[in-house]
Amino acid sequence: LSVATNGVEDWEDDVQLHGPHILRPKWRWFGAEWERLDFIAGAIFTMGAVSYTGMTAVEFPVFSLDEETKRAFELYPGLLGGICFVVGSYCYCAEFNESWSLLCYRPQRIAWWLNLFNLTGSFGFLLCAVLAFFDLDLELKSLELFVGYLGGSLLFLASSYLMFLEVINPNDVEVDEFEMFG
Predict the structure, then answer these.
(1) How does pLDDT run across 57-102, given as a tens digit for each residue?
(2) CA–CA separation, 21 and 38 (whole Å)
(3) Enclosing H/E stretch for 22
(4) What gap in Å lies between CA 74 and CA 54, rounded to an integer?
(5) Is 126 helix (H, G, I), strand (E, B) or coil?
(6) Which of 6, 73, 97, 117 could serve as 155's disulfide partner, Cβ 3.0–4.6 Å?
(7) How many other CB atoms are there within 10 angstroms of residue 141's CB atom?
(8) How far apart are the first and last CA of the chain?
(9) What is the C-alpha to C-alpha distance for residues 3 and 1, in angstroms, rounded to an integer?
(10) Interhelix angle for 151-168 vs 110-131, to 10°?
(11) Can you give the pLDDT at residue 173?
């Protein structure tokens, strides 16, 4: 009987048998694995998402805040969220590269594109957060929102789709560039 472990090294007694000869760890809702860089990156992304959620929540009419307080709740959480997205994306890149250097060019790998889109989208959100501290005219403000938030969101959407491809193709298959785009 041959059992595939899907790359997991330490199983202990925390396993279940799924399907024909596929061994998977039991599902956990809570847990911490701070020694894993991808776990740290996910935690940093979560902090950024919570920060952005707080930033958007102050716009609800139930909060009767004066304009100065409302502006502070928009600026600083947006900046923190943008920084968290960039740092989290960088951690994911470092985990993929197995190095803190970003000088890794592997476009035949799905994870490379995923990380590129995530990091670029994160910089879009950070750009918007930084520019929000300045009083820009309406035309520049529209450009900021279009390039930063819409561009960043579209790049996050693309990386989310690539995450599905990573999950359904777990064997880290290299993709021929011609197959990937046509």
Answers:
(1) 877 777 777 888 878 888 899 899 999 999 999 999 998 888 888 7
(2) 28
(3) strand 22-25
(4) 8
(5) helix
(6) 117
(7) 15
(8) 40
(9) 6
(10) 160
(11) 54
Crossing angle between the packed helical segments 37-57 and 67-97, to the nearest 10 degrees? 160
Query: CA 90 to CA 99: how far, in whole Å?
Result: 11
Distance CA 89, CA 116 (A): 9
CA separation for the pair 90, 115 (Å, rounded): 8
Cβ within 8 Å of residue 80, ≥6 positions away: 47, 48, 51
Q: Measuring CA to CA, which residue among 7, 3, 10 is closest to residue 33? A: 10
Using CA atoms, how far apart are residues 78 and 82, in angstroms rounded to an integer?
Answer: 6
| Neighbour count for residue 84 (Cβ, 10 Å) | 24
Average pLDDT per 10 consecutive residues for the chain, totaling 182 residues: 44 48 67 87 93 81 78 87 95 88 82 92 92 82 83 93 84 54 46
* Confidence (pTM): 0.73
